[in-house]
Protein: Putative regulatory protein, FmdB family
Amino acid sequence: MPTYLYECENCGRFEEFQNITDDALEKCPKCDGKVKRIIGAPGIVFKGSNFYVNQAKKKSNSSKNNKSEKVS
Structure:
């Protein structure tokens, strides 16, 4: 279920878990004041290993070979 961000005229911002098919809230659940939905960036959670680019790549022997060639 997605989390939607709302802003109440009286209470300020709050989050609400809703189905995608549900209509947007029109009243604050705390004070019955008028609310509007705020569009924000989604929260992303990276779990597991190898989600960084530098972790996924293995060191190659070509970089070692290039260093030895330059020294000669």
User: Anything to note?
Assistant: Residues 62-71 form the longest helix (10 residues). DSSP finds two helices and three strands in the chain.
